[in-house]
Amino acid sequence: MTEPSALNPGVSRWEVFGWALYDFANSGYTTVVLTAVFSAYFVSGVVGDATIGTLWWTVSLSLSHLIVMLTVPLIGARSDRLQRRRGLLLMTTAGCVFATAGLTWAGPGTIMLAVTLLILSNVFFSWGESLISSYLPTLARPHAMGRVSGWGWGLGYVGGMLTLGLCLAYVLSAQAAGQSANEFVPVTMLMTAGVFAVAATISLSLLKDRPLTGGDMSPAWQRLRQTWQHARQYRDFVWLLGCTVAYMAGVAVAIALAAIYAQQVIGFTEAEIMILIFVLNIAAVVGALALGYGQDIVGHRLSLAITLLGWVATCLIAASVTTKGGFWVAGVIAGLCMGASQSVGRAMVGLLAPSSRLGEFYGLWTLATRLASIIGPLAYGLLTWASLGNQRLAMAATTLFFVTGLLLLLPINMQRGQTAALQKT
């Protein structure tokens, strides 16, 4: 656990543990539903066509992220105004849990039902992700924000591994008993929803709402308009948003399409995909913790640049290999970069955001990540469809997102950005 000197006055270790435990709780959703199990099942089991199923999957995710992009800044501004993040977090958690459990009813031919529940679950998940992230600057001191963020991401990947491990154990036993994916995948959805509900309940019981004094309590739309009007005062934060859109578009491809690519292009089975994602999560824990502490030492900007170079290598390897062993190499590198890039990004927002607008600025950051989640998977799906199913071409093209992110990272000056945030607090 992080040392007391890393925490703000009055913040206990249990409170930080409760905050990190929410990452533990919700990571099972992204790991099992979006990455390892339901994504591949949606293409092969629900739709039954690789090219059309991939397009349906990417369009559905893009639509959900569009909804989030249009709404989450208002939720963040509202949480700042009401100073009651925990109540909003409880509602978004319940929504994601129930929608995930509803995916139990998705089966062959139930495309619209599956799409509707997928959109709902991802919208609620994304709202909750923004709200929990906005707690970080109220818990950690500026010099320790990277390590605390990394600790949260690390515990989050442990949660993803636990949920995936439970599902993998069940799937292996179900396959041994002769069950098909149509029979065991619905059960994994219930298991994922259950772990999310239990862990999130404990997390919410430990979290506290910490009112901020001197904040702007004007209406949400007015606050958002003021943020954009004064964007030049936070130019490093604006550059970070642009950088985030670029590189998170590539990360979104990895999250949304790793299992589909492994199954349709490399030839992985359902169980092999789950084992691959399990190992990827182990690597993500290492990456989140290593860069969580490392970014506080070598700098957040350099740490992010290193991870983006790793992502470029991941995409090029994945697009060129023809064996499962070669794809395993790409998967491990992707895991290391996954935890690191997300941890660094969240910490950088906390350093560049004025303390009176944490919810709003984290809402804008989530807006940027959701815009990226529209652009990345949709570009992949459309390119796959236009190239008559050539997913290798789409994977190679994904490197352009990370290269663009590197270019947009260059103008960011963290010291200048932190000074501006403090002056405008």
Topology:
Blueprint lengths: L12 H24 L1 H10 L2 H33 L2 H18 L8 H23 L2 H4 L5 H32 L4 H26 L13 H10 L5 H32 L3 H29 L1 H21 L3 H29 L5 H29 L4 H7 L1 H11 L4 H10 L2
Summarize this structure briefly.
The chain has 17 helices and no strands. It is an all-alpha fold and 425 residues long.
Describe this structure in words.
It is a single chain. The chain is mainly α and 425 residues long. It has one domain (11-208, 221-423): Growth Hormone, Chain: A (Up-down Bundle). Helix content is 82%, strand content 0%. It has helices at residues 13-36, 38-47, 50-82, 85-102, 111-133, 136-139, 145-176, 181-206, 220-229, 235-266, 270-298, 300-320, 324-352, 358-386, 391-397, 399-409, 414-423. The model is unreliable at 213-217 (pLDDT under 50).
For the record, the count of structural domains works out to 1
**Assembly category:** single chain
List the secondary-structure elements in sequence, H or E: HHHHHHHHHHHHHHHHH
Low-confidence stretches: 213-217
How large is the share of residues in beta strands?
Answer: under 5%
CATH homology-level superfamily: MFS general substrate transporter like domains
Task: Provide the CATH topology.
Answer: Growth Hormone, Chain: A
N-to-C CA distance: 29 Å
Integer-rounded radius of gyration = 20 Å
Tell me which CATH architecture applies here: Up-down Bundle
Mean pLDDT: 86
Give the overall form. globular
Helix content percent band: over 70%
Q: What is the count of β-strands? A: 0
Structural class: mainly alpha
User: What does the main sheet amount to?
Assistant: none
Please report the number of helical segments.
Answer: 17
CATH level 1 class label: Mainly Alpha
